[in-house]
Write a structure and sequence with these properties.
The chain has 14 helices and 12 strands. It is α/β, with parallel strands linked by helices. Strands 5, 6, 7, 8, 9, 10, 11 and 12 form an 8-stranded mixed β-sheet that branches. It has a 4-stranded antiparallel β-sheet with strand order 2-3-1-4, with helices on one face. A hairpin with a 5-residue loop joins strand 2 and strand 3. The site of S-adenosylmethionine has 17 residues, from helix 10.
């Protein structure tokens, strides 16, 4: 089967129940003997198809549409001025989205561009990393890098040895906003596969303790594997289903709630989700976020910091959730935090990190201190 036929098969099998990124990962895993350049081509072809879907003619065979998607992606990369802004705004997201977040020309352009791969390195390995990966560029933070090459870094020996993590730049900003100090005890309540747990641990210099919980046991298994690779040992992984019973009676210096969300901020990296996410997801997830915030809040010590983060940008899941919590909890004060991308700007209590400004996923962060 040619790479084009393989890409077409992945597109055909993708559905709301079988997201394209998962189908792609599973297919490429089954065909591990495929040359890495072919595998990279298939990924690019599948993502370009969904990124440019609304520009593609429905009556063409899938293979032809995939080729058109790749042509559009290449043209946009080299001559973006040929794409009228109004058309980009109108076609880059589903119609319902405009009522839930501001879709302007810069946002649309950021969604149509090929996403950047961001790394976070352990400082002692930076030199070696630059030697081995010549297409690395320094990012906005001291330990952050933009990778411009096309190698599959999951197979890189430095990655396998825990010298660096692959982590979106907006997610790196969340860790910096938490700014955990050595000696503090933190709870990463929706730790998932541990992206932010590992960062919190690194920021604490591997000292003191992070409780990392999630309701998905398989995600915590992945977290344990990643932590072992990163040589991160100051964490305790525990199951927590989001109920009002926290996983421990410990009172924390800091809690990060990186809540489940509609993921509108990841539509650049994961374009298939644009066409499978619905208004109902936004509404249901906003209710879950409000509930989880309420449930983690009592686990903070007086003076402890609560950081709410979501990789989405809908009003319902961002400002509305944060404002409702501020209104409801008189035992919490809003906490002004510095935007790591704009360290000279005045601190704010709620922050949107727009993909067009950061080159990463879209994120929203709000912070409070327990009185
Ligand atoms: C945005 S992801 C977390 C990503 C992770 N913090 C990272 O940086 O890699 C949200 C996580 O919330 C978990 N989750 C969803 N519903 C939950 C619930 N009711 N209680 C606890 N965790 C939940 C999901 O399993 C998912 O791992």
């Amino acid at each position: 089967m040619s790479p084009l036929q393989l890409a077409a098969r992945i597109v055909e099998r993708s559905s709301p129940e079988n997201p394209a990124d998962l189908v792609l990962r599973q297919t490429l895993f089954r065909r591990r003997s495929l040359p890495p350049s072919d595998a990279a081509w298939v990924s690019r072809a599948v993502f370009s198809f969904f990124r440019w879907q609304r520009w593609l003619a429905d009556d063409l065979p899938i293979e032809a549409r995939i080729e058109d998607g790749l042509r559009l992606a290449a043209r946009f990369a080299s001559r973006p001025e040929e794409f009228p802004e109004a058309e980009l705004v109108q076609r880059c997201v589903p119609d319902w989205a405009a009522a839930h977040l501001p879709v302007g020309a810069d946002f649309a352009k950021s969604l149509q561009a090929e996403p950047v791969l961001w790394l976070r390195s352990r400082p002692e390995f930076t030199e070696e990393l630059f030697r081995r990966l010549p297409t690395l560029e320094p990012g906005p933070f001291a330990d952050s890098y933009r990778y411009l090459g096309r190698e599959d870094l999951f197979h890189d020996r430095g990655f396998q040895a825990g010298q660096f993590e692959i982590q979106d730049i907006a997610s790196q900003a969340v860790g910096r906003i938490c700014a955990p100090r050595p000696g503090e005890v933190w709870w990463d309540a929706c730790a998932g596969e541990g992206g932010k747990t590992l960062h919190l641990s690194a920021l604490m210099g591997g000292k003191s303790l992070i409780w990392a919980s999630d309701r998905a046991a398989w995600r915590l298994d992945r977290l344990r594997q990643r932590a072992a690779r990163a040589k991160c040992f100051n964490y305790r992984a525990v199951a927590w289903d989001g109920s009002e019973r926290p996983p421990t009676k410990t009172r924390f210096d800091g809690v990060l709630l990186d809540a489940p969300c509609s993921g509108l901020g990841t539509w650049g990296r994961n374009p298939h989700a644009r066409w499978t996410t619905s208004v109902r997801d936004v509404e249901e997830l906003a209710a879950i976020q409000a509930r989880l915030l309420r449930h983690v809040a009592d686990s903070l010590k007086p003076g402890g910091r609560l950081i709410y983060a979501v990789c989405t940008l809908s009003h319902a899941e961002t400002t509305a959730v944060a404002d409702a919590f501020t209104e409801e909890r008189s035992d919490f004060d809003t906490l002004a935090v510095v935007n790591p991308f704009q360290p000279d700007d005045p601190p704010v209590t709620q922050m949107h990190l727009w993909p067009q400004d950061t080159g990463g996923n879209g994120m929203f962060v709000a912070a409070w201190r327990r009185l």
